[in-house]
């Protein structure tokens, strides 16, 4: 994977830094998997690569319980993803207590080349933020 | 004085992909009915050319996020047909099992989130969820049961990576499969509840004369193998697909329109499979269908939601049967030697028969590809249904008429992204 591996790489870099009570889960983003993963969680953090036109390496951070940017929504009703997971979770009452979403802006997707420098820095920054957040939550 | 009505929906909701509908009525006479697909062409058939045969399942899986297994299965069967190899025993059963998973997740998504809102008067599944929380939770849990099968056998839920020509890269242990059983046992009861729930909806009356077409196997409800059969006399090997069916490009649509040669529109999907293969459903599924008010043949496309629910039950029962009988195969795949030739594969995607044909060079590289998805095959039937619905409901005000017209398109659970790829695009600049 290229820069679109930003999410899984964050997980890799968190692996040795968080308490065992924190579950690190790689997801393809299917709504049913997300809802099941964060059910009963006090805090859930989602990290993914995004493309919205901003400079590569920019970091978006949103409160998932306050709404999901329409520009990030999938165009397909058959891909029931993060946006739908939030909407459905809200409708049926299974959103986590707190939901933080990080989007790392990318502009390059090539198989097998690793992360570009800007994305590599952004991944570290997001990982540091998540560590601080989890420590504060604990 | 002329009374003209035109109902135009520029962007259909709760269907996958970009489609539109336009109908025009003048003095109570239907002048025009169009179901158009404006999703841009995707050219999969073109960029498969020159690729090794081993790439076909992985590339074609990207055509669709909800039915990737269908593309993988049709492609591997076509390649195996070209190379004269047979996949049987446990590998064959695992292929049926992964297809069960896809049917469950696809059918349940459509039933609960895309189609049920029509019958209950909701704008979307999200709006419906607010009032029917437990029902939607049941649907989400059912979908996950299907996802888990695909994830275990395919490596992941979306665009699986474990399917290859000859079988799989890795096969599961008996223990891994048995871990799915408790949730599938719950899912069986949930599917029965789904049938009862959908059977209670109010359905517009319709008894249409369809030519149903599906894969037909002598012994089993079809997934991967069998002839191509219709309720009007067709019963031919898959290799004769192009002798009986033809595709044409209509200017206003980016997806090809299909016809039975010498006849016209035909209908693929759950109603077609059900009509042609009813007796091969399990006794429980047959009983549940009849108790739901269905007959062995259903000609009302609005009741497709009930038939999808019955097929969901069948897929769950079939998954449990396969898991119970499973013996780990000695090897995860049957080896093959590529050679020049032509191969054909037709398997039953959730939405209907999906046909692949590949012409191969002697080193196994793809020379040509033809991919005919179910939604493209159903386009003319969808338009015919729209005409019928218009005739029946002209007395309705435009907003209500538009609702039932859109509902009739959603009867087919169209996957427009699957439908929009064809090989030749001519651009004429004047």
Describe the SSE topology.
The complex is a heterodimer of chains A (138) and B (430).
Chain A: H1 6-14, H2 31-38, E1 43-50, E2 59-63, H3 82-92, E3 98-105, H4 117-137
Parallel strand pairs in A: 1-3
Antiparallel strand pairs in A: 2-3
Helix pairs in contact in A: 1-4, 2-3
Chain B: E1 4-9, E2 19-26, E3 29-37, H1 44-47, H2 56-61, H3 68-83, H4 89-120, H5 125-131, H6 133-154, E4 163-164, E5 167-168, H7 174-178, H8 181-199, E6 213-216, E7 227-230, E8 235-236, H9 241-244, E9 245-248, E10 257-260, H10 270-277, H11 283-291, H12 304-325, E11 341-349, E12 352-360, E13 366-372, H13 374-377, H14 379-393, H15 398-410, H16 416-419
Q: How would you sum up this structure, described in words?
A:
The complex is a heterodimer of chains A (138) and B (430). With 138 residues, chain A is of the alpha+beta class. Chain A has a single domain (3-137), classed as 3-Layer(aba) Sandwich (Rossmann fold). Chain A is built from 4 helices and 3 strands, in the order ααββαβα. In chain A, helix 1 crosses helix 4 (117-137) and helix 2 packs across helix 3 (82-92). With 430 residues, chain B is of the alpha+beta class. Chain B has one domain: Cytochrome-c3 Hydrogenase, chain B (Orthogonal Bundle), CATH 1.10.645.10. The two termini of chain B are 40 Å apart. Mean pLDDT of chain B is 90; it is low at 421-430. At the A-B interface, helix 2 and helix 3 of A face helix 4, helix 5 and helix 6 of B.
Structure keywords:
heterodimer; A: 138 residues; alpha+beta; Rossmann fold; three-stranded mixed beta sheet; B: 430 residues; Cytochrome-c3 Hydrogenase, chain B; three-stranded antiparallel beta sheet; 13 strands; 44% helix; disordered C terminus
């Amino acid at each position: 994977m290229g820069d679109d591996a930003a999410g899984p790489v964050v997980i890799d870099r968190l692996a040795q830094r968080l308490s065992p009570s924190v579950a690190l889960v790689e997801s393809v983003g299917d709504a049913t998997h997300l809802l099941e993963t964060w059910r009963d969680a006090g805090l859930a953090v989602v990290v993914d690569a995004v493309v919205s036109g901003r400079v590569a390496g920019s970091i978006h951070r949103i409160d998932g319980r306050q709404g999901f940017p329409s520009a990030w929504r999938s165009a397909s009703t058959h891909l029931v993803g993060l946006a739908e997971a939030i909407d459905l979770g809200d409708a049926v009452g299974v959103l986590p207590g707190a939901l933080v979403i990080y989007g790392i802006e990318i502009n390059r997707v090539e198989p097998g080349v690793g992360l570009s420098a800007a994305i590599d820095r952004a991944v570290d920054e997001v990982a540091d933020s998540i560590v601080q957040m989890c420590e504060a939550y604990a | 004085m002329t009374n003209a009505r035109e109902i135009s929906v520029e962007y259909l909701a709760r269907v996958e992909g970009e489609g539109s509908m336009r109908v025009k009525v003048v003095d109570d006479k239907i002048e025009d009915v169009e179901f158009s697909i404006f999703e841009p062409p995707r050219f999969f058939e073109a960029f498969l050319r020159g690729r090794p045969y081993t790439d076909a399942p992985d590339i074609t899986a990207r055509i669709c996020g909800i039915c990737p297994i269908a593309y993988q299965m049709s492609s591997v069967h076509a390649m195996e047909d070209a190379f004269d190899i047979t996949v049987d025993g446990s590998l064959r059963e695992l292929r049926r099992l992964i297809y069960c998973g896809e049917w469950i997740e696809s059918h349940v998504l459509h039933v609960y989130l895309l189609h049920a809102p029509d019958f209950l008067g909701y704008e979307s599944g999200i709006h419906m969820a607010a009032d029917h929380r437990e029902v939607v939770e049941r649907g989400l849990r059912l979908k996950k049961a299907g996802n888990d099968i695909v994830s275990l056998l395919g490596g992941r839920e979306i665009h699986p990576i474990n399917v290859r020509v000859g079988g799989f890269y890795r096969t599961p242990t008996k223990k891994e499969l048995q871990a799915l059983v408790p949730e599938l046992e719950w899912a069986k009861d949930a599917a029965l509840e789904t049938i009862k729930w959908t059977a209670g909806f109010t359905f517009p009356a319709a008894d249409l004369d369809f030519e149903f077409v599906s894969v037909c196997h002598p012994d089993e409800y079809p997934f991967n193998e069998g002839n191509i059969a219709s309720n009007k006399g067709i019963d031919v090997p898959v290799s004769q697909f192009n002798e009986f069916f033809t595709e044409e490009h209509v200017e206003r649509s980016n997806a090809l329109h299909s016809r039975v040669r010498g006849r016209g529109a035909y209908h693929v999907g759950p109603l077609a499979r059900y009509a042609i293969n009813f007796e091969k459903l399990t006794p429980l599924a047959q009983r549940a269908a009849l108790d739901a008010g269905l007959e062995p043949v259903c000609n009302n496309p609005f009741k497709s939601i009930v038939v999808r629910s019955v097929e969901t039950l069948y897929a769950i029962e079939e998954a449990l049967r396969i898991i119970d009988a499973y013996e780990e195969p000695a090897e995860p795949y049957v080896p093959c030697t590529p050679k020049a030739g032509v191969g054909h594969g037709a398997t039953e995607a959730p939405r209907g028969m999906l046909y692949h044909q590949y012409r191969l060079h002697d080193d196994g590289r793809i020379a040509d590809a033809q991919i005919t998805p179910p939604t493209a095959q159903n386009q003319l039937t969808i338009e015919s249904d729209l005409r019928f619905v218009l005739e029946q409901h002209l007395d309705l005000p435009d907003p209500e008429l538009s609702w039932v017209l859109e509902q009739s398109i959603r009867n087919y659970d169209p996957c427009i992204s699957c439908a929009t790829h064809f090989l030749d695009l001519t651009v004429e600049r004047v």
